[in-house]
Amino acid sequence: MFKKWYPVIDFVKCTECGTCVEKCPHGVYAKEKAPTPVVIKPEKCIYKCHGCGNRCPVGAITYVGDNTGWTPPNGKSSDNVDCGCGSGCGCGGNC
């Protein structure tokens, strides 16, 4: 979707809970590597979607190209974010 927007995992913080892999409806992560988050299709990430980052319980996800002012929720998972795109990903309707 957007060549300079995709998630980056901080593996020092990441606990490999699999929430990001499980909750991303866009196919950015390798499901077969779960619970380890491996970004295999960065081009499928929706521009300005923070769905996986909002759900990460340890704040281990940031985004290449993010200039929105968004910051990881620092351990406060926002699992009930409604993005408006119909997939529940948290993209804010930017699909």
Automatic annotation (TrEMBL):
Signal peptide span: none
Q: Name one Pfam family in it.
A: Fer4_9
Tell me the keywords, alphabetical order: 4Fe-4S, Iron, Iron-sulfur, Metal-binding
Which species is this UniProt entry from? Sinanaerobacter chloroacetimidivorans
- Give the lineage: Bacteria, Bacillati, Bacillota, Clostridia, Peptostreptococcales
Question: Mind listing the GO molecular function terms for this protein?
Answer: 4 iron, 4 sulfur cluster binding; metal ion binding
Query: Per its UniProt entry, which superkingdom is the organism in?
Result: Bacteria
Q: Which SUPFAM superfamilies match?
A: 4Fe-4S ferredoxins
Give the protein's recorded name. 4Fe-4S binding protein
Record domain 4Fe-4S ferredoxin-type: where: 5-34, 36-66
